[in-house]
Structure formats: C-alpha cells, structure tokens
Write a structure and sequence with these properties.
654 residues, seven-stranded mixed sheet, five-stranded antiparallel sheet, 16 helices, globular
Length: 654
C-alpha cells in the first residue's frame, strides 16, 4: 500500500518506541515491495535525524526549532509555511529553501532565522511529509533536447506551481495534444536537478470552454471517479440479508412507526431532473476507462441515512428516536472498503452528481428504505415540554421503515385539512408529523434561549440534515428545519455521552469570530442603516449574532448584512478535543454521527460507540455488584475507570 511520510510519523506518539512489524500492520504493508519501501523510509528518516533507532525499534525525535506546516506559495516563488496551531507565526520560506516542495504540501520546516516585530521567522523545508498535488491540470508544449530529439512537457495552469513536467509516452498522441488542457498524473516528483515526470491520463479539451466542468473539478481536486477492484470485490461480499443472530442482540424497534425524509419526491431521482452530462471530448480524445465515472463510484441521489420516530409521553414531552444506518456493522476497520472511505473523507456534491465515500453496493445494504428491515444505531431522546433534554439512551437496534416522505409531501400533509379522507397518507402521518413539528419547535426555542442564532440565507441549505458546513442553522423549509433540529440534538447527546464515558472522540468545533472583524462589520452595518453594538466589548458571543439578525431583520439591506455577518464566522472544523461550537452556542462539545454513509468521521464515531457497547467495562472490577448502563445518560458522573481496554483506547486515540 502507498503511504505518506505523514501517515508513517503519525504512529510515533508520546516518545514511544515502535517496531517495524507494528508499522507494517498499521500501514497495511502486506507485500515485499511495500515492506521494502517502509524500510527505506525508516532508514532515511533516521539519517536526517527525524527518527532514532534503539534495539531494532524507532522513536520520534522532537526539536524546538522544527515545525510542521502547510506551504502556501505565491506565483513569484516565495512561500509561507502555515502552522495548524491558532496564533502561531507563519514562517517565510525562500524559493531556494523549498527543497522541491510545492504549494499545498505538508512539510517540516527548520527555523534558520528568528522573526522580529516586523518580520516573520525564516525557515527551510527539512522534510516533505505529504504531497498535495498527485496530479495537475496543465497544457502540453513541445520542446527539443540538445540532440534535437522532440519531447513533450506539461506546464501547470496553477501559476503557484513553478515547474514543468517531462511527459512519458503512454499511448496518448501527445503531438495532437499540444496546447490542449490535460490532466497529468505525477509519476515522479523532482529528484535533485531532475524535473518531475508525469503522464497524461486525460485530454480535457482545447481549452477550459471545451472541457466538461465535472472533469475539470475532479481533475483539479483529485476526486476519484472509480473504486479500486479490491474495494468493489469486498463490497460484493457483504451480507445482503439480516441474520437472526444480528437481530437477537439488538433492541427490536420494528413495530414502531418510523419515517425517513428526503428532498426528492417518492420515485424521483436527480437523474430525472433534465440533467444532461455534456460530451467531454472529441472522439480522438475520449478518456481512458480508468477516468470515466464508474457507476459504482457516484450517486444521483443522497443515501437515506437516518429515520425518525416519536412518542408523546403521558407526563408531557416526547421521546424522539433518531435512527442511524449502522454502517459500522458492515464496514469493518482496516478493510479495503474502510481504507478507501478514510482516504475519500466526505462525499462530494457536484451539481446533481455525488462522488460517494462508499461503493453503491454498501449504500444498497445500509440505506433506510421503505418496507425494509435495517440494522441501526438509535438515539432515543426524552424531551420535556420546554424542549430541554431530560435523558437519553443510545442503542444498537433493528428497525423497519414504514414511509419515506419528501419535505414537500410533509408540508402538504400538515397543511391539508384533518378530515380529508381521500388522502390515506395524510390520515396515517398527520399525527406523527404534528408531534415532530411540536417537539422540534420546543427544541428550537430551547436552542435560541441558550443564545444560538439563525441566518436568513436561502441558498445555504445543507446536503445533510444537520447544521451543515456553515456551522449554524440557516433558514430552510419548515419540514427540513424540524428534522435538522432533532438531528442536531441527537449529535449533541452523543458528544456529551463520549465525554462522560471518558473515551476518545472526534468533535466538530467552531471558534468565536475575531473581535476586530465584528467591529468592522458593525461599522459597515451602521452605514447601511443598522444600529448594532456588542454587549461585551471584550468577547463576541452567539447571543450577539442572535441580536444582530433580529435587529436588521426586515431592513432593505438584510440580505447584504447577513452575508457580511456570515463572512465574519470562522469555519467549523474537526478536533479530537471537545471545544465550544459558536454557531450552535454549545460550550462543551458537539459531534456528528448521523451521516455515516457520506462522512467518514460519522462512521468513526459509530464505530467508537460500537466498541463501547461490545467491549466497554460497566464497572470498576468484574466482581462489583453494581454496574452502570453504558447506553444511558444515567451513567454520567458515575464512571471512575477506563471504559475501553487500554489497547483499544490507544488505537482510537491514534
């Protein structure tokens, strides 16, 4: 298996010695070639002082004047190394100190000159950890060697990539491709004074106008357009039917009314919406099979990953069930499917086409479709009448989907008259939808009371039924908003549970905006008719944003001000440390686990919960008579031991 130096060094933590055999297993080096590459890498890292060898095992050496960073270069050749840690200084790197690193590469930089008040520190690239450009968009040009032999080179379109690639002859008629836009795979990076080498994998067209938009985006961002054969084979071998043993160990919820929601009408797909894929090439430049969209690698429609159930309690309030497709049961760690999903990370939505994280066969096995029994993770939330979360339970379950509704259908049912007997669907689902609406309105009220806010951005609807990439709620149709409100509440409960159990987790965090940006926004808004101010001049609170949106609601400049306000928000990011989430006004951590077919991080959280339920310790010792319920919020504050076995705990931390 191919691995980066960053992936290799990620296995060296806490100054511990690591054996090569352990690294072979972690990096999936199962053949002689990959094992030899690993040994070469270890010896090279030892020679340059990154690793030290002790009795056949290796340990990472840390140096105060060496920082890890990502290169951001200019078209003039100089670069800055941007460190991940907030508040860290950028390091200036001259072109002569790049050591063949390119824009976007993750590198180790050695500080060679300390910074001053007016100048950034200066450094040189010591080691390239991970290449950011496995391929490039380029134009082909012809050149002649000193002996007069004609050769071909690729000139990258990105003017921050200051090099040319020698092109290999690989069956493509390079003479006809001269001055054409091409996708070039890098076969060898620069080596000493030797230029990088690449091969043309697809001729996109005579220029950007002639090329297909999808092809350009996929090539530019190296989005995969097919799954490796080993992944498809592994997916085909997944079980297609539920076994009695699978159901026996789970909470049986097949008899409760369970509904899924989607943006499409029943039976409608995105491919029905007059979506035509343009021809991408003249016949002489048709792409090779490896670059065409494999039907198994993309989707027309988002998978159905979560379902809802609800019960009104006699004491008042509701028990809401958020049922999540149990992808963790099918996609086991370190299998070919898992490794490919981890590499892809998140599904990419390109118009009506979706580049999937998992093969379509996995979607068929896991998607929550009507009249099908499915394995699930069920987050059962008990809400009081004010929308506050009283208690919750997280269970592995088996469910059966009764109905699938579009959001448009849900709103039509709620708007119809209650005595309309000609609409059996309306009769069956109106009480259900009314309860969902009431519970979500109560949850929304509780969220707003703690200081959260909503942005009037109609074009910001997320592909997922949660807070989306914006990190905050945007105005959406009522039915979709109702589902999102309850889904976010389930994510919030899972994050609280992970922290209470003391297990590693992956969280979604969003820092507060910079104070200076907010002050600038207030000046602009006041010039546009607003009268905004901060309650506390020392910090920005979500409640300030709530007040801002209320104050300029209805103004002619509302849309402009909303976009300006959005611009001050920092992006939400993943973190292994629970931190505040500004857009949701949460101080103690938030996670996402409700889209495991579309986001690898969600799958990882479900896998962690699965490990807790199957291998977690519910008491300090095996002899203890009293045990806690690891599924239920009642265990919070009672756990004083490590829930997971040490090796498994460490594996999840890594």
């Amino acid at each position: 298996m191919e691995f980066s130096i960053a992936a290799l060094l990620a296995n060296f933590t806490e100054d511990k010695l690591v054996a090569p055999k352990a690294l072979e297993k972690k990096l999936d080096c199962n053949d002689v070639t990959s094992q030899l590459k690993l040994q070469i890498a270890l010896e090279a890292l030892e020679k340059i002082g990154i690793l030290v060898k002790d009795k056949g095992r290796y340990r990472r050496v840390t140096e105060d004047d060496v920082v890890e960073a990502k290169l951001r270069c200019s078209s003039k050749g100089f670069c800055f190394a941007i460190q991940d840690a907030e508040g860290s200084e950028d390091v200036y790197v001259r072109e002569s100190h790049l050591s063949t690193a390119w824009n976007g590469d993750r590198v180790l930089v050695k500080i060679i000159k300390e910074g001053s008040r007016r100048r950034s520190p200066e450094g040189e690239v010591m080691l390239i950890l991970e290449r950011a450009n496995p391929s490039v968009l380029a134009r082909v040009k012809q050149t002649a060697t000193p002996t007069g032999r004609l050769s071909y080179r690729a000139i990258p379109l990105d003017d921050r990539l200051l090099f040319e690639l020698d092109l290999l002859a690989n069956g493509t008629n390079l003479q006809e491709a001269i001055d054409h836009l091409v996708h070039v795979e890098v076969k060898r990076y620069p080596l000493g004074t030797h230029r990088p080498v690449g091969k043309v994998v697809q001729v996109l067209g005579s220029d950007a106008e002639a090329a297909d938009d999808l092809d350009i985006v996929c090539c530019k961002h190296d989005l995969p357009r097919s799954f490796p054969p080993a992944v498809i084979k592994a997916a085909e071998n997944l079980p297609s039917k539920l076994k009695k043993t699978d159901i026996k160990k789970r909470l049986d919820l097949r008899n409760i009314l369970t509904v899924t929601f989607s943006n499409n009408e029943p039976g409608e797909t995105n491919s029905d919406k007059n979506y035509d894929v343009p021809e991408t090439e003249p016949e002489s430049f048709s792409p090779t099979a490896e670059n065409e969209f494999d039907p198994a690698s993309f989707l027309w429609d988002p998978p159905v990953e979560r379902a809802l159930s609800i019960e009104t309690l006699k004491s008042g309030g509701w028990q809401v069930g958020i049922h999540i497709a149990d992808v963790a049961e099918y996609v086991q760690p370190e299998t070919p499917i898992d490794r490919e999903a981890r590499k892809r990370g998140t599904a990419a939505h390109l118009g009506d086409k979706i580049i999937a994280v998992l093969p379509s066969i996995v979607h068929e096995r896991c998607s929550l479709l009507p009249d099908t029994e499915r394995l699930a993770f069920s987050v059962l939330l008990t809400l009081d009448e004010s929308g506050e979360l009283v208690e919750y339970s997280i269970q592995t379950s088996v469910i059966q989907i009764d109905y699938q509704l579009s959001y448009h259908q849900a709103e039509a049912i709620l708007a119809s008259t209650s005595d309309d007997e000609t609409q059996p669907l309306s009769t069956a689902l109106r009480p259900f939808l009314e309860q969902i609406s009431a519970a979500s309105q109560a949850a929304r009220k509780a969220r707003l009371q703690r200081g959260a806010f909503e942005l009037n951005l109609p074009d910001a609807n997320s592909h997922f039924d949660d807070e989306g990439e914006l990190g905050a709620f945007a105005i959406a149709p009522p039915a979709q908003s109702a589902v999102s409100e309850l889904v976010v509440l389930a994510n919030q409960a899972v994050a609280t549970h992970l922290q209470a159990l003391g297990v590693p987790g992956i969280y979604r965090v969003q820092p507060m905006p910079d104070h200076a940006d907010i002050q600038e926004f207030i000046k602009l808004s006041n010039n546009l008719g607003g009268e905004l101010y901060l309650e506390n001049e020392e910090e920005v609170l979500p409640l300030d944003f709530q007040r801002f949106t209320q104050q300029f609601a209805g103004l002619k400049s509302e849309r402009v001000l909303t976009y300006l306000l959005e611009d001050t928000m920092k992006p939400a990011v993943y973190s292994t440390t629970p931190k505040p989430h500004f857009g949701l006004a949460l101080a103690e951590g938030y996670t996402r686990c409700t889209s495991p077919l579309s986001r690898y991080a969600d799958l990882l959280v479900l896998r962690l919960l699965q490990a807790v339920f199957e291998q977690g310790r519910s008491s300090r010792t095996t002899r203890a008579k009293e045990k806690v319920d690891l599924h239920h919020s009642s265990c919070h504050g009672q756990i004083t031991w490590n829930v997971l076995p040490p090796d498994l705990h460490h594996e999840f931390e890594t």
